[in-house]
Amino acid sequence: MDARAFDAGVTTADATAASAVTTGVTTAGAVTADAPAGGVFRHPGRHRVAVLVRHGLLPIELGIPHRVFGRSWDERGEPLYEVVTCAVTPGPVRTDADFTVDVRHGPEALAQADTVIVPASHELDDAYASGRLEPPLAGALALIRPGTRVASICTGAFVLAAAGLLDGRRATTHWSSCERLQRLHPDVEVDPDVLYVADGHVLTSAGVASGIDLCLHMVREDFGAEVANSVARRTVVPPHRDGGQAQFIERPVPQPGVHTTGTARDWALRHLERPLGLRDLAEQEAMSVRTFTRRFREEVGTSPQVWLTRQRVERARHLLESSGLAVEKVARDAGFGSASSLRLHFQAALGISPSAYRRTFRVRGDAPETGNGGNSGGGRGGRSVDRAGDGAGGAAA
Q1: Strand 91-94 relative to strand 100-103: parallel, antiparallel, unpaired?
Q2: What would the pLDDT profile of 302-331 be if each residue is shown by its tens digit?
Q3: Inter-residue contact 326 to 334 (CB < 8 Å)
Q4: How much is the pTM?
Q5: Hey, which residues does 103 pair with through a beta bridge?
Q6: Helix (H/G/I), strand (E/B), else coil: 151
């Protein structure tokens, strides 16, 4: 499918024929998600997520968006998302395990969704084998409304690429398939070294676990770090792994008895407000600066300086959402030292100013302290941060 057809919302006969929802009886060994009568999405006001599955589905990848988005609640405990599963042809969908998934929704769900997610398939279809879409799948994707956020998990990126949605964009997939993706789609800038990529309204992620990171990233962009952190706590996963983190880390699991940099990282997180240098961190592990830096990169996949900046940005996000502290105080508590330094790093990392972020994602309505605190505000009702900088993102802190 040509990307222009997608942007124009063209519907093909294949998609129309596939739109009828079957209500067949569940077979033995199948997992069924009952469809509510009268429509696909039944809860106005919630962000609508459609997960498009294909034969060869990896069940864990189907579970990721349902778990992350399905457990995202506002401060009153109300769900923020509605998640449904759909297929080009409703009915039993094969998995790579010893059971099938009975999918009750067809591609009509794609036409109503605010976010569409395409997980991987372990069965080799045309998208992976030749870089082309089979007509029914192309027709289904053509139902997606212009401007809808579209994301892939693992080799689901091959579907987006075959649809032309990644042309001229930066993207990633599982490290073992990056070379193939680049060869089939030379107009895509494939980055094999990152966990996920957000390029405008099209997002791609690496292997299975990075799908969790990507979904948490979308929750964070939609409703703020507090909501994403709450989901991560309930799911017992790290609240944030930056998309730029390496897919493959040389020393992911230390050998027994080998000294790691974990103590230094824990210590740094407890003292982010301090001016921390490499020597300070190395001393926590009784290592030389050179050895510590090398070991840190092997274990974390990035330099200590870059890691520290990311942690400080996350601390600042939390404080901006959950407190009334002035921006100057947030900057000091997060370790940036000054509001100007915070603005510089915050804008570079998120594409938005601290004050605009606070207006968008403020948890409580209490006014921030006087000074450089910016504006308080609600605005949490599903509004996304535009990383390219729209009206909110362009505001000065």
Answers
A1: antiparallel
A2: 899 999 999 999 899 889 988 899 999 999
A3: no
A4: 0.68
A5: 91
A6: strand
